[in-house]
Amino acid sequence: RNMSSAGPEGRKKMRECDGLIDSLVYYIQGAIADHEPNDKATENCVCILHNLSYQLEIELPESYAQSIYMQRRNISSNDKTPGCFGTRSRKVKEKHQDTPLPEEKSNPKGVESLWHSTLIRIYLSLIAKSTRNYTQEASLGALQNLTAGTGPMPFAVARTVVQKANGLPSIRTMLHVSHPAVKKTAVSLLRNLSRNTSLQNDIAREVLPDLVAVLPESVPGSDIACETTASICYTLYNLTQSSSHNARLLLSAGGLPKVIAVSMNDSHVFNKASRAASVLLYSLWSHTDLHNAYKK
């Protein structure tokens, strides 16, 4: 577990180690089957897999990268790398979202296991069944790592989490835990998932009211609460930016007074949460059909 956080070279060596990833997955599967999701070794295994999934898309060996991206030949090489936030990148993102992964292998080996639907389902199972904060955080964090970026792999993983494995109810529960790091990671995962335009309505229906519920009534004090609040605002931005229906959902959930309160930063110090809330307000105002409802 310590070695898996030793940087890119360490991750590369461990991913290439014959049988290591397979053994970790095998152990976790056994623990879940034996109804022992809370043991320390399971936590260690999940934390290792979490670390090995960090920057996976960027650090993949050339042979894997070619097989994953062979579907992208038709995409123009003139496209700029899309940012994770902003309207200009939307068209490029949508192109990536239509780019399928190669067929999943029924028996993945090594690195292939890291983004396979089997392991995605294991993470979601641990999120639902484990009561160990580190295990929950590492499972959420691994999914967050796998859904970061704008290539076909993150979007395929996002689709598996939301539509194929019905993962949103388990993630939604994590929004209401008292452990700040678990909550922060759950929100960061939802922020990644919400960038996928084809999943936005599903996510809004399942978790938008919960995101509003965990928004604070004022600018949060601690750094971790500030980051979590900023991530919630950016997730809500993604969900409401091109959907008047979802913006109305935010309104009916009582979100507007909270967003306004968070946007009002009196301390004159740069605040991530206040800035994110302001961006969200600006975007919400673009739905002109809701102006009367907002004013009320």
Automatic annotation (TrEMBL):
The entry's keywords: Cell adhesion, Cell junction, Repeat
Biased amino acid composition, Basic and acidic residues: 95-107
BP terms from Gene Ontology: cell-cell adhesion; desmosome organization; heart development; intermediate filament bundle assembly; protein localization to plasma membrane
Subcellular location: Cell junction
Main location: other
Keyword Repeat (UniProt): yes
UniProt keyword Transmembrane helix, yes or no: no
Source organism superkingdom: Eukaryota
SMART domains in UniProt: ARM
InterPro entries: ARM-like, ARM-type_fold, Armadillo, Plakophilin/d_Catenin
GO cellular component: adherens junction; cytoplasm; intercalated disc; nucleus; plasma membrane
SUPFAM superfamilies attached to this UniProt entry: ARM repeat (SSF48371)
Region (Disordered): 79-109
Family, per entry: Belongs to the beta-catenin family.
Official protein name in the record: PKP2 protein
Organism lineage: Eukaryota, Metazoa, Chordata, Craniata, Vertebrata
Gene name for this UniProt entry: Pkp2
